[in-house]
């Protein structure tokens, strides 16, 4: 596995004219804003974060994320930068928060959709093929249910809500400030540079940004234990189940070209529950703990961007890859902040 | 040149807009293939409050004609409501009408289809019905006001090609003057070429391009195959025969035994 950021990087301090560390204002304490704050603090900047919500993630779509650190699985539909930049994620998260699990990802399909496994394998790399016994050895509760699967042993996952809380603690411990309940706009923030990490709310400044609706469920089942995210392939509605602590399972997520954040449709609910039930019928007895709906911010190429408009740099468009790509985008944003002459990957300059 | 309600596209490939890795890759595929008509499915929930506006704008910016569809509708009422919403969103009377009758095969509910086609045609829509190769159903759809028929090649998304070439050939012969488009089930450019060689006027497909490793390249491959198939049809191909027919004359050749 190539993990280009595995080595701790030497502190690189950019001094302003007065010899003070560069002061960065960040708007938005979702996964992107927090990751940028942590990365900049690691690299010697002074950071002030403004979040309109009452706590980290409260109003962010990352609150509803799956938390899969699965660059190779995402390669099935995502373009090359997602795989390459995503490979930094698991190591970065392990250095910044507790609770990163590196048990890999298991990709399965019901027997009638077996050809989807073949197709998925043709599009991806870094997996081993498993038969029914291999699947049962990894996930004993799935014994006898699936005859063929792919195991991406280098991947990981985390619980997004714990990770957001852990990362905000890390930011505070490293000397960053977080102002909750702040509606500050870039122009109001006295800082050398402002990182705008508002996600879909930044559509006022980024007209290309669109919302891609996602719906998820949290189920609780005491009858079933899983050790890693399971992706269940289906020609129309591929979904996944991610195990969390306390018998919780996150079932996600739909992908709908819509900016609606208000409601789940009965059809989506049926698909999500159907996927869980197809994975294991004991989900039929599970408690529905939560229904989550939000919209992911995406550009037309579904790739993340740094958009520089004067002293404001937008970090946005992470689409369905918030936890996977935040570490790399934070690194690139910090490069752009600390060395204004550099042209990091994914940077787009726009007239201010 | 086939005319679809008065529109005569140079390209006989109609492309679906779902399942691409990104809208940008969809745009690449449209440009690479010279497609002039794309079909867009409208989720009713995205129509309410125009929550799907951003994606529709990207589709409109492709600069090609939009054929909205009623994908996923299981009843006449649902399909009619979706068609009316699509007319408002895209400002077109065109509608690709799908009324799904069975969830595993996604095969059309032809009874509901005929009824919905009648309601929509009376309401001023220009209906492109997704149907089977059944010529009796085809006739009823024409009676209902349709001027184009779109029989399936195989179940939606299956990529199996033409499951019933005999039925499709019969349909072509039965409706000589009606624009016919094979819609659904196409997996490979050779499948599309086959349909065009039978005399079909166009091919509508989505999955085979959207989920290919390189959608733009696959779209171009389909455009080429469709053009080749059409040319072959117009060039009047030879009939297959059982015995060899030497291409050089044997008469007058010396007997050497």
Task: Give structural notes.
The complex is a heterodimer of chains A (352) and B (257). With 352 residues, chain A is of the alpha/beta class. Chain A contains 9 helices and 17 strands. Chain A has helices at residues 31-42, 71-74, 80-86, 89-96, 114-123, 132-138, 160-173, 266-279, 322-338; strands spanning 23-27, 46-51, 68-69, 105-108, 128-131, 148-152, 156-157, 177-180, 193-196, 210-220, 230-232, 239-243, 248-252, 287-298, 305-309, 312-316, 347-349. In chain A, the strands form 3 sheets. Chain A has an 8-stranded mixed β-sheet with strand order 5-6-4-11-12-13-10-14, sandwiched between helices. Chain A has a 7-stranded mixed β-sheet with strand order 8-2-1-9-16-15-17, covered by helices on one side. In chain A, strands 3-7 form a two-stranded antiparallel ribbon. In chain A, helix 1 (31-42) runs parallel beside helix 7 and helix 1 (31-42) packs across helix 9. The longest helix of chain A is centred in the C-terminal third of the chain and has 17 residues, at 322-338. Chain A is elongated and about 65 Å long. With 257 residues, chain B is α/β, with parallel strands linked by helices. Chain B has 10 helices and 8 strands. In chain B, strands 3-2-1-8-7 form a 5-stranded parallel β-sheet. In chain B, helix 6 links the parallel strand 5 and strand 6 (150-151). The radius of gyration of chain B is 20 Å and the shape is globular. Chain B starts with 12 loop residues before the first strand and ends in a 23-residue tail after the last helix.
């Amino acid at each position: 596995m190539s993990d280009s950021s595995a080595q701790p990087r030497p502190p690189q301090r950019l001094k302003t004219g007065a010899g003070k560390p560069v002061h960065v204002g960040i708007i938005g304490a979702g996964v992107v804003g927090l990751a940028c704050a942590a990365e900049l603090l690691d690299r010697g900047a002074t950071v002030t974060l403004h979040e309109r919500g009452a706590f980290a993630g409260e109003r962010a779509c990352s609150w509803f994320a799956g938390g899969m650190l699965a660059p190779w699985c995402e390669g099935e539909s995502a373009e090359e930068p997602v795989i390459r930049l995503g490979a930094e994620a698991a190591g970065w998260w392990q250095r910044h928060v507790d609770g990163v699990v590196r048990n890999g990802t298991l990709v399965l399909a019901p027997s009638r959709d077996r050809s989807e496994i073949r197709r998925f394998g043709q599009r991806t790399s870094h997996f081993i093929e498993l038969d029914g016994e291999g699947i049962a050895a990894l996930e004993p509760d799935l014994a006898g249910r699936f005859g063929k699967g792919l195991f991406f042993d280098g991947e990981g996952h985390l619980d997004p809500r714990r990770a957001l809380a852990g990362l905000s603690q890390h930011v505070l411990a490293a000397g960053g400030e977080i102002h909750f309940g702040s509606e500050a706009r870039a122009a109001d923030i006295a800082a050398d540079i402002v990182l705008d990490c508002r996600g879909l709310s930044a559509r006022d400044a980024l007209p290309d940004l669109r919302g891609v609706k996602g719906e998820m469920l949290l189920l609780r089942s005491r009858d079933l234990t899983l050790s890693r995210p399971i992706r269940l392939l289906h020609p129309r509605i591929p979904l996944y189940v991610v195990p969390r602590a306390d018998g919780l399972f996150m079932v996600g997520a739909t992908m709908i070209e819509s900016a609606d954040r208000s409601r789940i449709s009965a059809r989506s609910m049926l698909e999500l529950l159907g996927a869980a039930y197809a994975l294991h019928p004991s989900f039929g007895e599970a408690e529905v703990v939560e229904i989550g709906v939000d919209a992911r911010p995406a550009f037309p190429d579904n790739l993340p961007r740094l958009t520089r408009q004067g002293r404001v740099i937008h970090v946005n468009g992470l689409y369905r890859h918030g936890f996977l790509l935040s570490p790399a985008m934070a690194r690139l944003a910090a490069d752009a902040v600390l060395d204004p002459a550099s042209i990091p990957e994914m940077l787009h300059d726009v007239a201010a | 040149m086939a005319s679809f309600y008065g529109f005569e596209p140079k390209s006989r490939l109609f492309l679906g807009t779902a399942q691409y890795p990104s809208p940008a890759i969809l745009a690449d595929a449209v440009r690479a293939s010279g497609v002039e008509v794309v079909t867009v499915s409208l989720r009713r929930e995205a129509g309410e409050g125009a929550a799907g506006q951003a994606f529709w704008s990207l589709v409109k910016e492709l600069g090609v004609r939009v054929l909205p569809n009623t994908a996923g509708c299981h009843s006449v009422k649902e399909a009619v409501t979706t068609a009316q919403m699509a007319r408002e969103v895209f400002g077109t009377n065109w509608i690709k009408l799908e009324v799904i009758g069975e969830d595993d095969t996604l095969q059309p509910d032809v009874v509901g289809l005929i009824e919905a086609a009648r309601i929509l045609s009376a309401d001023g829509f220009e209906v492109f019905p997704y149907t089977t190769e059944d010529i009796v159903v085809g006739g009823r759809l024409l009676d209902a006001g349709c001027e184009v028929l779109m029989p399936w090649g195989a179940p939606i998304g299956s990529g199996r090609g033409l499951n019933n070439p005999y039925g499709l050939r019969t349909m072509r012969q039965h409706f000589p003057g009606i624009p016919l488009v094979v819609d659904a089930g196409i997996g490979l450019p050779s499948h599309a070429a086959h349909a065009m060689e039978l005399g079909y006027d166009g091919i509508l497909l989505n999955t085979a391009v959207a989920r290919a490793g390189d959608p733009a390249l696959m779209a171009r491959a389909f455009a080429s195959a469709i053009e080749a198939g059409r040319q072959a049809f117009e060039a009047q191909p030879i009939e297959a025969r059982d015995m060899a027919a030497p291409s050089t004359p044997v008469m007058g050749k010396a007997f050497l035994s």
